[in-house]
# Entry
Amino acid sequence: MSGYAKGTKGACDRLWAQIIRARANGCCERCGTPGPVQAAHIFRKGYNATRHDLRNGRGLCGNCHTGQDGVDLGMWDWPELIGVVEYEDLRLFMRNNTPFSPPAGMTLDGWWQHTRDTLKTEAVFMGLAA
Ligand SMILES: [Zn+2]
# Structure
């Protein structure tokens, strides 16, 4: 799925996806099929709290991510796939920070800039051109 946001938030989307795909290292993290992967959100990207959280993504082949019809499968087996403890940690984090608001004294755009810089640093650390 594409559909990156505009502006700084979109830059975060692209960096997040780049890191998630690279981390999968050329294999679907669900079924193990080698080949190109898509960056899949565990909790959908509508939740800003976890939208760019690197815990909230895995690289999946097109079949595992969206199936034949291109519709997001919803991945009922995420808890099994990433572990129940990690899944619950992430779910609670998302729930406790939704609706999302940036830290006190920070604008939402300031938050996206901070997130972009953090993701950029991670991408460079991983040896990706960012
Ligand atoms: Zn797969």
Residues 7-125 form one domain.
